[in-house]
Write a structure and sequence with these properties.
alpha+beta; globular; 147 residues; 45% helix; two-stranded antiparallel sheet
């Protein structure tokens, strides 16, 4: 019975996510010059998912990055308003974004330009033993910020 509830929840999340990404108008595509899908004015914001890490990563850090990236690529692949960012905070090039998010270590954040959701603690608790829970939390958080 519990499996049916989990699959029902995942199905609803996927259907809702697809309906959000399909709500759009047309504009010129950058690559071909043809009409392509773009967002309506009220939805013209980007939701960035940041996975911050250092040069040296433990297995849990690697799992957090892999689950986060796979979730975004699998669920939001057709939505240009959702962007996955893999940021090495040990690279001096990323100093500004590291300071903006006040980081001293690894982290996962969902940021829409106005508000940010820190998923770090949850991600590190779930990535190895309950990756589906982490994936569901990422999907819910991104969909909330797309509204």
């Amino acid at each position: 019975m519990k499996n049916i509830s989990i699959f029902s929840l995942i199905y609803l999340i996927m259907v809702f996510g697809l309906s959000v990404s399909c709500n759009s108008q047309t504009s010129k595509d950058m690559h071909s010059g043809q009409d392509a899908v773009s967002e309506t004015p009220q939805e013209q914001h980007t939701v960035n998912i940041y996975y911050f890490h250092g040069d040296r990563r433990c297995e849990t850090c690697k799992a957090v990055g892999a689950v986060t990236k796979e979730t975004i690529e699998d669920v939001f692949a057709d939505n240009a308003a959702v962007v996955f960012n893999d940021i090495n905070i040990d690279d001096p090039v990323n100093k500004e974004v590291k300071e903006k998010f006040e980081l001293s270590g690894s982290g996962v954040f969902v940021y829409d330009g106005n508000s940010k959701e820190d998923l770090t603690a949850f991600a590190f608790q779930k990535a190895v033993n309950s990756p589906k829970e982490l994936s569901e939390k990422i999907i819910l958080t991104v969909n909330k910020m797309l509204r």
